Amino acid sequence: MASRDQNSKKNTNLLNPKNLPCNNSFLFLTLICFGSLYLLFSALKNSNKTIISSTGKHENLEFKPSSSSSTSSVCDYTKGSWIYDPNGITKRYDNTCKEIFKGWNCISSNKSNAYDIIKWRWQPNQCNLPQFDPVRFLKQFSNTNIGFVGDSLNRNMFVSLVCSLKQVSNEVKKWRPAGSDRGYTFLRYNLTVAYHRTNLLARYGRWSANENGGVLESLGYKEGFRVDVDVPEGTWAEAPSFHDILILNTGHWWWAPSKFDPIKSPMLFFEKGLPVIPPILPDLGLDMALNNMISYVERVMRPGGIKFFRTQSPRHFEGGDWDQGGSCQRSKPISEDKVEELFSLENNGTNVEARLVNQHLYRALKTSSFRILDITGLSEFRADAHPSYAGGKKHVDCMHWCLPGITDTWNDLLLAYLSDI
């Protein structure tokens, strides 16, 4: 204690202006010099970085998440800039990860900007988004089950996470827990990550008119798809009671005329086993399904489980939709003005789906205990990050994402939100 007191007295003496070997003017000039040097080095450090910023216009939606569903009380990770930083990002996995679906492996498919895609870093305005640390993740979530439930865009995110973890842990067992499409357990940590495939969340299947007639038949319906808005699809019905952390999504299939032709094969909604009469359009069907599925998860989720609903992943078709000659050939993120042109609800353009779906999501989640994983706004800038012509399909893929790619940032966000919790 005596030694500490002596040091304290010495520090106090140093801070006493009477003991400084200079006058106040000298001190003032010294501070100015240090400040100037700091600004100079900061400018040099950032001189080779390109910034694509978000002013938040994309958040001008009718429905907002309530404070109870907010994902972070510390920082708003959704407002920020994409910074091109070729030397500042550590590659977390490469194109040799076997879990990457062929159509998303843009490096193996020789997409011209495949290596540049991961050199753009998302920088929130008022804080830093830590880059995903797979070792830390495995340790922090040992003895945990994590489930991704949704369409192929959630599989995109699932694959990113699995590939990141496989880079540092090769003791892996492949299995399908609770009806999942695919899953892995990292044995050393007893961490399971699984993907449950479901397009609508609600159960659906082909419907044909009954020769004995019925209310739908009397209205002239001959065939379509039966969607039971209050029944979860079997692929994920057991997921909430199995997983400790659940990430849900839906949206892309609800306005998909190539799947559900409004004339030849419309969506016909059922509740409690009976058709909804009069028949309703898909947007109202989505509202009914969301309300029922959210209630179902909250009812059966295991105690202490953490529930996320991921917002809509944006598409980037320009010059028409996927079946109308549309494409996505950009090699870097787009500007704020271009974002508004492509996604504004007022323009009602090809890619309006993202913000339209989010309106329905925010409304349904407003009074729930779900946390919102908001990836829409930051993803709207990344028109450069889709497989495009390298996807190997008959049409250009401007919906899914290259891997490695932007869904790595989604997992950065997921870990940041989990850490805040």
TrEMBL record:
**GO molecular function ontology, one term from the record:** O-acetyltransferase activity
Task: Report the principal subcellular site.
Answer: membrane
Trichome birefringence-like C-terminal domain residues are 129-416
Pfam families documented for this protein: PC-Esterase, PMR5N
Which InterPro entries does the UniProt record give? TBL (IPR029962), TBL_C (IPR026057), TBL_N (IPR025846)
Taking every annotated instance into account, which residue ranges of this chain make up the domain Trichome birefringence-like N-terminal? 74-128
Keywords in alphabetical order, please.
Membrane, Signal-anchor, Transmembrane, Transmembrane helix
Annotated compartments: Membrane
For the keyword Transmembrane helix, the answer is: yes
Membrane topology classification:
Single-pass membrane protein
Q: Which GO terms describe its cellular component?
A: Golgi apparatus; membrane
Q: Can you tell me where the transmembrane regions are? A: 25-44
According to its UniProt record, which protein family does this protein belong to?
A: Belongs to the PC-esterase family. TBL subfamily.
- Protein name in UniProt: Trichome birefringence-like N-terminal domain-containing protein
Origin organism is: Papaver nudicaule (Iceland poppy)
